[in-house]
Amino acid sequence: MLAVWVEQLLGFATGALAAIREDERYPTLMAWARDEGPALVGGNLPLAQALAPELWSQTPLARLDFAAEPLARPGRNEPCWCDSGRKTKHCCGAVSLPGHVPSHLMWMLSLRDWKGDTLKAALASGLAPAQALLEAGLIAAESGQRGRAQQILESLFERADWQTLPEQAEPAFEILIDLYQERGFHRKREALLDAVLDRGPLFLRGVALERLCLMHLDNDDLDSARAAFVRAQQALPDSPTLAYIEAMLLLHEGHEEEAAERSRFWFRRLSRQGDLDPDQLQFLADLAENPGATLADQLLSAEEDLAEPLVALQALLESLPVAPRLEIHHHEGSGLEYHSTAREDTLFAAWQKVFKANVESEAPMGFDDDPWPHAGEWLPALCAHPEWLDAPAVVQSLALALASRFGSLPWMAPSLFEPLASRLERWLEQVRAEGEGPFPWDSADNAVLLRTGLALVVGMERGARARSRELAERLLTLDDQDSLGLRELVLDQLLREGRDRAALELSVRELDGEGDETPPLGLLMGRVLALYRLGRPDEAREALDEVRRHNAHVAAMLCAENPRPAGTGGDGIAEPGSRAEAWQYRTLMRDQWRSTPGALAWLQARLAD
């Protein structure tokens, strides 16, 4: 019965609103209620007459600057407010409504219908109830009206009194953040996150923290992510969200053991409080047992339609047979070459019928189209045809696709990237077994294996650092021209592992081989940091002087606590010597400078030299 009433109420209210908008006068509504209203409530005229005044009293009227014109509720012996001429007790007062009438219903429907200047003025009035804004915004988002949804939800979160926000505002907040991201309103996104963290209700702060940390982690800005976490820890010391965020952060920083230890700490602490629901408690227990696997499971379960095929893919990769041999040729003049076979071409053609996106031949990583909207087709097809993975071109496409979606998430490395790395490593062993010599990017089908290697190096960079570095080093021994730009990545990984002497040797060797070319900033700064860590400050100062000749911004950018971000062009490539180049280096490596005792203070002192 309740569902029937809700449907009837919504239909009746929609019709009543259309009648009201004709002239925004009460008699017009009552005439409609008597003539057309009964058909919308099962032919019940008394119900239609009783419901209409209730709705009128809460309807915003444009002629009153969006205030309502509520009717005085009459006494039992007074004339009924439906203008029937009878006493209330013999008219609407004798009617029992089948269910509740939300006090914000007519505002919500009005916000759903108004457009342009009228909608803008209604929102600016500040009279719309929070629940009406929430529901109208969600409806607009679900129907694909992104501009309307953003406009309405912005009004919801611009309210001075954050404490009046309904608890259902959490999905609206996340939708608005996503809309800002999709539509390129990055400053608005950051301002909303900051506002919620500063003064938002408790139930929203955890969500804002998660989004802020994820935003920084997606940008590889570990230092900003750590700062956001510390800030939230001070504001919300007992929030269960902190356990989840800290585990993510520590895994991104490469501290697997500390992530497990801190997860166990959070479980002990929060379980003693006794105010967690069973699902939260179980999640914390799972996190304490295995942070990486728990975060991976949570991610997959959040993928909705793709959860089942992604789990099937994990199972497939875990049970892959040994990779078949490739056709490798060794030419004295041009080096080593991989040539795809007819069988591999046939397997790849079958794969392309469902995968559809093509690898950009001139780019290190990328497709001509996003493959993930069609993942519901190609993931199950791949699991049904595991033999497709005998073709390196299929492994290349899969590795690139997985890296584009999961490459920044360290907990996905064991189940998605490491099995593919094992396959590629066997093929690279076959290449080297054919003899010494280069494996040039532009020879035969070599780029397929090299590009696959780059995707897997990126995919394992956070979650399997040592293996990522080892694969990168193996690729560099084959492609000595470094067509993939792996030298800086290897250097960064060596510094993260504390292998400072090896990092210094690599940086010196590579910089000596640069000739007249502009040296990569990562190699230059890596040499400075390695020298400082090795207790060679004079040499570090000389190396820093060379850095300044190439990029005058990087030292100040590293030392600043909250510098203004510097974006790159549309291709994502920063010009040598630019602030954008300095910003890219900061996001990748400031956490290493900060965690090195005295390094930032030493760098700050050099700014005055």
What does this structure look like?
The protein has 609 residues and is mainly alpha-helical. It has helices at residues 2-23, 26-35, 45-56, 105-113, 116-124, 130-142, 146-157, 169-183, 186-199, 202-218, 222-235, 241-252, 256-273, 278-289, 291-301, 307-318, 342-355, 375-384, 392-406, 413-433, 446-460, 465-478, 487-496, 500-512, 521-533, 537-550, 554-559, 579-595, 599-607; strands at residues 327-331, 335-339. Helix 10 (202-218) runs antiparallel to helix 11 (222-235), helix 11 (222-235) packs antiparallel against helix 12 (241-252) and helix 25 (521-533) runs antiparallel to helix 26 (537-550). The longest helix is centred in the N-terminal third of the chain and has 22 residues, at 2-23. The N and C termini lie far apart (80 Å). 41% of the residues are buried. The model has no long low-confidence stretch (mean pLDDT 88).
Question: What brief labels describe this structure?
Answer:
single chain; 609 residues; mainly alpha; Serine Threonine Protein Phosphatase 5, Tetratricopeptide repeat; 4 domains; 2 strands; 63% helix
* Rg, nearest Å: 31 Å
Mean pLDDT: 88
**Number of beta-strand segments:** 2
Number of domains: 4
Global shape: elongated
User: Helicity level, as a percent range?
Assistant: 55-70%
- Please tally the helical runs, counting DSSP H or I stretches of 4 or more residues: 29
Q: Cα distance, first to last residue? A: 80 Å
- Looking across the biggest beta sheet, what order are the strands in? 1-2
- Beta content comes to under 5%
Poorly predicted regions: none
- Major sheet, described briefly? 2 strands, antiparallel
Helix/strand class: mainly alpha
InterPro entries: SEC_C_motif, TPR-like_helical_dom_sf
Protein name: Zinc chelation protein SecC
